[in-house]
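Supplementary material to the annual report.
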Amino acid sequence: MKQRKPIVIANWKLNGGLDLICTSVASFIGKHFAAQIAICPPYLYMRDMLTFLQYSELQIGSQNVSRYESGAYTGETSAQMLKQAGCSLCLIGHSERRAMFAENNEGCQIKVRTALNHELLPVLCVGENQQQRETNITEQVLREQLRGGLTGIDLHGKDLCIAYEPVWAIGTGLAATPAIAQEVHQFIRAELTRIFDEATANRVRILYGGSVTKSNARDLLQQADIDGLLVGGASLDPGHFVAICEQASELAEIDD
Ligand code: PEP
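Predicted assembly:
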């Protein structure tokens, strides 16, 4: 039986515009979802979405957050600004940010701490690339990302999500099988037990991300340690994304 409330997060990346906002919001208004649902649009569209969403349960997340509070940091957006704007959560250390914007584990740890300080739910993204999987160092990579990103973090009374996103599965159409994803999620939870303690590890939600579609969502979510999904490409089609959210909600209702 699932112990944790399922969560589904859309990562629009550098995509979308006012049309997508309108069609996405329209698909959610008036609907109840037992799962927690959030969309991470580009920064510029957050306020538009938040205005539309005051009558919906949908939450807005950020694709990134500054490690800094304020000051001469051109192009940055702080956790406090996101919180004040109405954001609920933020992605941290997405593999595209690690690969293209030189984000490292130490920077992720500062961002996790900053998000928690401002009551934003941090979603720390981890995952191995194809070469690392082929050379059997997946666990080593994940251990470094988790320890580096979480050491010294105090979670008392606060929530945290981990998104396991194998880089080889992102945007490739080659999702991890439910069995592979479950095996890794179980490893991540064991590692969280070592970093925090068993009770904390059992309440952290671990999302799977990488080529999730409405066709594989249910099988993935049925795994014991898969508590949610991070959805890229498929979230750009509102009908498709709603279908994924409905599946997560059905499982939440069954498990209630
Ligand atoms: C992502 O990049 O977070 C992601 C999950 O992308 P996709 O669903 O397109 O693989």
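Residues 11, 165, 170-171, 209-212, 230-234 surround phosphoenolpyruvate (CB under 6 Å).
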